[in-house]
């Protein structure tokens, strides 16, 4: 689904201020409350906005160690491995990938020693052939979406302007 400039403004506003209400968004953007609500509903129904939950820092919950594990999976065992990994609370994300591994998961642990326990639990299923783990030293660019939203909104606005063609005020490029 393509987003337009207003969609982009709504998403950026929500990303920056997750607790903002629909009425306040409509006031700040200068559009009707119903327009904001309809846009938000559409963005949700198309999966652009997937949720409004809090952004929680695992370190604040006592899990300051983050690692990525690349997993090689025995052929035909992907579904079993996914189901197993979904039961491990310290597995925050799981992606299927191309390249040297079949899956990449982001893990958290209470310490480096605890990370070994987590890894042992992760690989505790026959479907995982090999695991390679890398501990995160620093996260200089944390997960962010605002620059991508702004770029998508600008591209949509530019495409709309091209499709609309020049207006009478802009001229039509003719010599008169």
What's the topology here?
Layout lengths: L4 H12 L5 H8 L3 H13 L19 E9 L4 H8 L5 E6 L6 E7 L2 H11 L5 E8 L10 H19 L12
Antiparallel strand pairs: 1-3, 1-4, 2-3
Helix pairs in contact: 1-6, 2-3
Structural notes for this entry:
By secondary structure, the chain is α+β, with helices and mostly antiparallel strands. The protein folds into two domains: 1-55, Arc Repressor Mutant, subunit A (Orthogonal Bundle), CATH 1.10.10.10; 58-135, Alpha-Beta Plaits (2-Layer Sandwich), CATH 3.30.70. It is 40% helix and 17% strand. The protein contains six helices and four strands. It has helices at residues 5-16, 22-29, 33-45, 78-85, 112-122, 146-164; strands spanning 65-73, 91-96, 103-109, 128-135. It has a four-stranded antiparallel beta sheet with strand order 2-3-1-4. A hairpin with a 6-residue loop joins strand 2 (91-96) and strand 3. Helix 1 (5-16) runs antiparallel to helix 6 and helix 2 crosses helix 3. The longest helix has 19 residues, at 146-164. It is elongated. The model is unreliable at 172-176 (pLDDT under 50).
